[in-house]
Amino acid sequence: MPGSDQELCGIKELYSAPSADIDIVAVHGLNGGAQKTWTSDKNKICWLSDNALLPKYLPNARVLAWGYNANVTSAHGRNTSSDRILQHAQTLIADLHADREGASLRPLIFLCHSLGGIIVKRALAYSQSRTAAKIAHLHTIFTCTYGILFFGTPHHGSGKADLLSSLQKIVSLTVPRKLLQTESSLVRALMEDSEILQEITDHFVPLMPNFRIFFFWEQERTDLKYTKDYIVGEASAAPTLDDTERAGIAADHRNICKFESKDSPGFRVVVAALTRYSGDAPKVIGARVARVERALREQRLHEAQETLHKTPLEEYC
Is the terminal CB of the chain with fewer CB neighbours within 10 Å at N or C? Predict the structure, then answer.
């Protein structure tokens, strides 16, 4: 049933066109699920797979959801993850590459909710660095990524305190205050070392010219039981940067990426962006793949020449 995937880990195919020429990958945030994050609470419709929604407007796409253990507490009998951001990022790249065997050069577009965007940014930086001969296959995820849509992802604040405040609000959405001393390694990493998020953003910024990017921010306050507040502010969720797009969605942090119909706030803007990106991606990514393959061949040749010219003493240094 839609929304019943809390423990699903790995890639789940939600829809596939007979001759798909682009992969759309959805990544959830803390306490989310591969399918439930994108499923309306009212009518239980998942817009990523419902035939009247995304598949109708992008008939050439294969739509995937990636699940990972994002539970922040073991309350209600749920297991928490010992992994932190880097481990989740590495797993995402490995899972995606394995799933794309036979179509590893197909263009990619990511949909990211909340802290799922942090994992995707870290994953793309990790993939970009994988150029050695035996692991260069992992580099293809970076090479083939054309677009990223961020829904309420905390990219930065005016200082560490602002970023930490956003993180605390995200956790408090589903975790009572008395349980905030949680055993989740992911949350500990975020709460204790929130500068990690800023470092990830700093590493991601030089890569941004490679992608089409759309930032979405929440326009409604979220009910936190003790108050109502914006979980991730506009400035953090949608920084004003050259060559990026930004828009607000009339929904709170939980519902910013849940569309129950084509008339839901934000749906038309999201679909219009995905339609543009998926139309432009094949040509751009095809040229990029050819360029990267040439560069890697030259790198291998250079490495081989360096090895041949090394003296016996240098080889043991």
Answer: C
